[in-house]
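Retry 2 of 3 after timeout on previous attempt. Resubmitting structure tokens to design endpoint.
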């Protein structure tokens, strides 16, 4: 019997034969445009042309394997955050720690990475925002009382407000890296908060009203605001992640973390952290939507009432601490009196040197000449594994007044102007993603962190091991304001892929 054409076979068998041929590496399927020989009628067999080389046997079609994803360059920044969870030596001065040393290595790593990729590191807007503070700081360093004080102050300011934030901007590739850093903040806050709650329960915390119950985490009494700052950052990041448009499971975990961090924040007995966190979370809820703000606000208030009511003896102290917020003008305690006196001293110093200030680290030398007799000689710290220490008051406990006194109007406009510009750019990015675009959680986290920091600077300044976390915060905010929120993320990701 004469065999019929191949087309007489069912189409399903022909498709199966073609797939088997591809998997077996048939050379006839090396080119997708060539018609399969089994679909043509049988006739005179084809002979290869002398000018056309014979096909070599081998695999005809490579399997579409996904490209291997390299390790994220933001991991060194995560390591800086993780190092802040290590306990500090008891009785330390509360200065720079291991995280500060690692942050210097992160800056060096970023510089080497840029040299290898041979690409322009920052945009013009980024260069202006990071370059303006450098000019003001250099001018204030030249006016310092000694070259050593000028150089050390210049290095510290550059680390916190220029170098580390710029490195974070360059190392964060996309919003996924941004979320990794945000979750690292939440993890650090959870660890420090757990240590702080343990200190309150066991009576091993810092001294507060004669009892060693104040939660300070691993920072010790020398950096009494360290744990409160870390927990506040973690709570703000968790709130922003919970209000975003990610998976429901991730939002639920973030909301649970935010509620759990309310307890250590309360036990820090830090009135400033309470005020800044409450205002910032209110702003985040308003940016997420009015309806969601009302629902989540009611849940947060109920959770706060339950937490405060469940503390027993501690609830009386918390109520007294909360009520003291409204008495800062009528019957202030000694800490509030010292703060008012320091503020007045800083303003008096600035009036004598309005443009350039007295130079970096010049406030302690001019403080006593402008302070009233109401100022105490220092603040007492005790507990949390450290003995009694009386710390001198070397700053006005107000970042804006500190910059104004030491750097004058020029330095304040350079620093605070950059912060306000980042806030405006961050809100512009939020306006682009608030309706349906992805990245709402990143916008809420970035704007929330910057709002908290701007409020916190009204009654606090830089200093202590936890200050390096402020540098990472400014880096996250700058990335969203300059890259993530203005639609450049896709371009940056494509450039990064081409560089690799």
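Retry 2 succeeded. Sequence:
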């Amino acid at each position: 019997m004469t065999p019929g054409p191949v087309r007489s076979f069912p189409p399903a068998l022909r498709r199966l034969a073609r797939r088997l041929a591809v998997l077996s590496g048939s050379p006839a399927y090396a080119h997708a445009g060539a018609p399969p020989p089994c679909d043509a009628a049988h006739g005179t067999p084809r002979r290869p042309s002398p000018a056309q080389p014979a096909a070599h046997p081998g695999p005809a079609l490579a399997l579409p394997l996904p490209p291997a994803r390299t390790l994220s360059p933001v991991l060194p920044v995560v390591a800086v955050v993780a190092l802040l969870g290590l306990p500090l030596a008891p009785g330390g001065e509360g200065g720079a720690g291991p995280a500060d040393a690692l942050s210097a290595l992160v800056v060096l790593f970023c510089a080497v990475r840029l040299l290898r990729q041979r690409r322009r590191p920052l945009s013009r807007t980024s260069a202006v925002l990071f370059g303006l503070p450098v000019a003001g700081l250099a001018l204030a360093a030249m006016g310092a009382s000694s070259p050593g004080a000028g150089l050390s102050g210049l290095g510290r300011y550059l680390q916190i407000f220029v170098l580390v934030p710029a490195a974070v901007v360059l190392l964060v590739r996309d919003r996924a890296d941004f979320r990794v850093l945000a979750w690292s903040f939440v993890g650090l806050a959870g660890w420090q908060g757990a240590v702080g709650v343990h200190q309150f329960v066991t009576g091993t915390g810092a001294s507060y009203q004669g009892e060693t119950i104040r939660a300070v985490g691993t920072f010790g009494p020398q950096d009494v605001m360290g744990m409160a700052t870390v927990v506040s950052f973690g709570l703000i990041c968790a709130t922003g992640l919970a209000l975003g448009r990610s998976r429901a499971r991730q939002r639920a975990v973030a909301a649970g973390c935010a509620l759990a961090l309310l307890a250590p924040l309360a036990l820090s007995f830090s009135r400033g952290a309470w005020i800044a966190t409450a205002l910032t979370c209110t702003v985040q809820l308003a940016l997420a939507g009015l309806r969601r703000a009302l629902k989540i606000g009611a849940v947060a208030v109920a959770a706060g009432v339950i937490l405060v009511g469940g503390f027993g003896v501690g609830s009386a102290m918390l109520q007294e601490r909360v009520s003291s917020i409204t008495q800062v003008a009528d019957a202030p305690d000694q800490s509030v009196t010292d703060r008012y006196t320091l503020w007045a001293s800083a303003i008096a110093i600035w009036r004598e040197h309005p443009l350039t200030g007295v130079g970096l680290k010049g406030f302690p030398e001019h403080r006593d000449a402008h302070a009233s007799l109401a100022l105490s000689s220092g603040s007492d710290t005790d507990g949390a594994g450290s003995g009694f220490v009386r710390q001198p008051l070397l700053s006005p406990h107000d970042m804006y007044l500190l910059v104004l006194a030491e750097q004058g109007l020029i330095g304040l406009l350079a620093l605070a102007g950059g912060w306000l510009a980042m806030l405006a750019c961050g809100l512009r990015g939020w306006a682009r993603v608030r309706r349906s675009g992805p990245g709402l959680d990143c916008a809420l986290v970035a704007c929330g962190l910057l709002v908290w920091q701007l409020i916190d600077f009204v009654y606090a300044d830089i200093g202590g091991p936890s200050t390096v976390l402020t540098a990472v915060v400014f880096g996250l905010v700058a990335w969203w304001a300059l890259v993530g929120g203005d639609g450049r993320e896709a371009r940056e990701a494509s450039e990064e892929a081409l560089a690799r």
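Attempt log closed. Residues 24-45, 55-68, 490-500 have pLDDT under 50 and may be disordered.
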